[in-house]
Specification:
There is one protein chain. By secondary structure, the protein is of the alpha/beta class. The chain is 46% helix and 14% strand. The protein is built from 15 helices and eight strands. Helix 2 crosses helix 3 and helix 5 runs parallel beside helix 6. The longest helix has 17 residues. The chain is globular and about 50 Å long. Bound molecules: zinc ion. Zinc ion binds next to strand 1.
Length: 319
Amino acid sequence: MIDEIRNMPKVLLHIHLDGSISIPTLSKLSGLSNEEVKSKCVLTNNSEQGDYYSYIDFCNNYTQTKENLYIVSKDLVDNLVKENVIYAEVRLTPCMHMEKGLYFDDIISSVLAGLNSNPNIKVNLIICLMRGATKYMNSETLKYARKYLDRGVCGIDITGDELAYPLSLYSDFFKLATLEKIPFAIHAGDKSADDVYEALVLHSKRISSGIKSTMDINLLRLVYYKKVMLELCPTSNIMKKIVSDMSIHPANFFLHNNFNISINTNNMTVENTNITNEYMKLMETFNFTKEDFIKMNVNAIESSFLSKEEKNKYKKYFV
Ligand SMILES: [Zn+2]
């Protein structure tokens, strides 16, 4: 069964470059053994709450040069192709790659070169603003997302600590993006339902992961009627202790009540998963069928930032 799932065509709307660099590549770049690398960047059931960001920081020790950004981006797409991912929208947070003096052009162009190195997958970048970053840095991030829009970049998002930095602090960036016709998705609802409301006020058509909207029936109705795409990342939700156990993950509720959802990995390495593993876990826990996965992949294409023509092209993989 696992081979059948691995070979299914798949669309990924939500995956971060820096948290998804493979262990062998991190080992090569760091000079550490695979086991040493794992101990520094793979969450376990015993991990502390604070480990998540320090593990991402460990990965980003090796993403500070153009050469390494190319290597880790190529590593990512080569691994996605092994799971028959045909289209992916990869998150990049440029301000995390500036420790050794790189700036936006170098970072974005090196990553795009790596992502475009495998002809068996199409990848677009979603450029992330950062909660907690300076207004200047987030303005620059938006400026460069605009510069590369339709040249490998398909939209923006915002990442970082939801509770410490509520979305309302950054709403002007998304209002500007709307005026400038820059598509966006928003990380919201991992920790707070308020941020999901705020994302809806900003007319976000995509939210990741929106889990906390299940705490509020009115919010849930809004998400449903607006057909907002919920980019679900089940293992990530559990590793980050947003959901205590897969058996109570709301993916099952969302699927059977016709919400617009897709299945994603978030940070493959840090959260010790891949997209085949996500599908397998949902099959084992909730008896999701191949038809369910086809439906969610079609949802993902419809809600992607691809052009209409490209959407039609990728939908053909699922008929
Ligand atoms: Zn994410």
